[in-house]
Write a structure and sequence with these properties.
265 residues, elongated, single chain, D-Maltodextrin-Binding Protein, domain 2, 43% helix, six-stranded mixed sheet, 11 helices, alpha/beta
Length: 265
Amino acid sequence: MATNPIRAFQAVLLILCACTASANIHAQTSLLDRILEKGEIRIGTTGDYKPFTYLNPETGEYEGMDIDAAHLLGEALGVRVRFLPTTWSGLSDDTLNDRFDLAMGGITRTLERQKILALTGPYVTIGKSPLIRKADRERFNSLSDIDRPGVRIGANYGGTNEAFVRANIEQATIVMFQDNLDVQPAVASGEVDVMFTDNVEAVIYARQNPVLYAVNPANPLTREDIGYMTVRDDQPFINWLNLWLYQLRQKGTLDELRSRWIGDF
C-alpha cells in the first residue's frame, strides 16, 4: 500500500512537537530547586507594616511575625535567608522581575495579584479598621462619620490601604504618603485625622501610642486573607510552601507567632 506523503509528514510533525513539549517541561527548573542548589532563599519585604514586617532603625534588622516565619522557612529548606527591600507600589513588579524568590510581610490575597502572580493559602485573616486619635472616639464611630467634608484621611501609595480609601471615600480629603510608616505619626500629630489600615496594625499602633485609638478592630470593615507571594506557574514551589504552612498550623506554630506579634483584641 502506498504511503500518503502528506499524512506521513503530519505524523512526523506531531512527534517532533510532542518531543519538544516534553523537553521544555523537563527543562523548566522550579524556584524550589534553584533555592536548594544555591543554599539561599531571597525574601522581599517592605519593612513598614507592623506586626508582620518592620525594619528596626536602631538595629538595622527586620522583625515581625513574617520575619520569624521567614527564618522558620529557611530552617525547613535547610538554606540561609536573605532579606531584600521592596515597596508596596513595586511589590508585584519586583516579584515578576526575579528580584527575590518570595514576598512576605502582610500581603493581602487579591484577585488582581492572583492574575499575574501566585499566592499561598492564607495564614491570617484581617480587615480594614480606622486608626484615629483617642480624643476623637466620639466623633468617628463609623465609615459615614469619617467620610465627611473637612476630614483628612492619610494613606500610602500602593497596596490595599490606598485601594480601600479610593473605593470608599467620596467627601473627605485624601492625603497621600510615600511610606506607610509615615501615616500613623501624621494621625497622632494632627496632620491627618484618620488612617484606614488592617486591624492588626491599628491595634499595634494604638498599644504603642496612647494618643491613638483603633476603632472596633474585632469587627473590621472588610475581611481579607494574608498570604505569601511568588511567581505564577511554579507549582512545585507553591505546593511545598502550602504544605509548610499547613504543618506550621498543625503544630501550633502559627498560633504561637500570632500570639507573640498580634495578641488578642
